[in-house]
Amino acid sequence: MFSVQVGTAAGTAVLQLRGELDVESVVQLDEAGEIAVRSTSALVVVDCAALSFCDSSGCIRVCRPTEGGCGWRRWPRSSRSPGWTW
Questions:
Q1: Residue 80 belongs to a domain
Q2: Who has the most CB within 10 Å: 6, 49, 56, 63?
Q3: Is the pTM for the entire model greater than 0.85?
Q4: What is the CATH number of the domain that holds 24?
Q5: Are 59 and 25 in contact (CB under 8 A)?
Q6: How many domains are contained in the chain?
Q7: pLDDT for position 80
Q8: In the chain, which residues have pLDDT < 50?
Q9: Domain assignment of residue 76, yes or no
Q10: What SS3 state is found at 84?
């Protein structure tokens, strides 16, 4: 089972992924990604900490660049509590 939540942290869109990301569930990720991109002009962070499985189709979706470019930001685990809103 796969789920994705769209939230924000310090004005940045955050996609929190849980469960198993595979060829059947990437559609959910694509839909959530579109919502996240429309909700902010800033960076979109993909939090994969709660993924239990990710196949190659999931890896491609998580790592593909967007039209505006590609950026990476790593959030320290300690910052995950007060700043996150769901």
A1: no
A2: 6
A3: no
A4: 3.30.750.24
A5: no
A6: 1
A7: 45
A8: 72-86
A9: no
A10: coil
